[in-house]
Amino acid sequence: MRIFLTGATGFIGSRIVPELLAAGHRVLGLTRSDAGARSLAAAGAEAHRGTLEDTDSLRAGAAKADAVIHTAFDHDFSHFAANCEKDRRAIEALGSALKGSDRRLIITSGTGMGSPRLGEPATEDVFNRDHPNPRVASELAGEAMLAAGVDVSVIRLPKVHDTVKQGLITPFIELSREKGVAAYVGDGGARWPAACVLDVAKLYVLALEKGRAGARHHAVAEEGVQFREIAEAVAAGLNIPAVSISPEEAPGHFGWLALFAGLDMPASSAKTRERLGWRTSGPDLIADLNRMDYSQAAAA
Prior knowledge:
3-stranded mixed β-sheet, alpha/beta, 7-stranded parallel β-sheet, 300 residues, single chain
């Protein structure tokens, strides 16, 4: 199949490209730049010029493809709610090009959407439409497309990591570098799910080939790593202390990251593994944090 992949040169998308090619698919990758087009060509993929903001370019790319995998997202978390709305519009545009066909659309969300209440493990068969995380907009858009007859499924992401990036932990590392301490809230017992980026890339291909309309899949290798463990690994890497701060102190210390820092967000992938046969083999989160080079600031 010819797959239109948004975010094709990004952290996760660039790992999906070789997985798709190895499975015999062709890749049409969204890119906004000449450098991105060259990168895609070097990887064996075809470039489609466009942006998340240009919904006409998204519709055009989807119209050329047998299926769409949507991983692109604006990760400026200081404008998180606005970027979630941008993602909603992108999903609607991609879906509009697939209506009336059996061409699959795989969208991306966060594992928290599967938690019925804060602190309860997220599962694949739950969608909490009242979740306070603005990323709920992505799944609401997916539901609307499903109701309109589009074959939509969802990959929910935890903290996706290698030794360079680790989702929200990457800005946490830079904040810790700036503050001179790696802080955690209270006893640090809040749990964050995680998965190695290479395992996550494989799941997108399995969802493409084996998934069903309306399904939600969890790309979770570790159900919940305590935030204190994360802070202690970061503290060791930066050679700074790990310290506890109170919930009242969190907004002043973490800034926008306070929205997530104290949240207990465990998530299960049991049903994903059973339904798709997904197996994980990558390093765990703490191993990657222990192996990373802290002498360099985070990659953009």
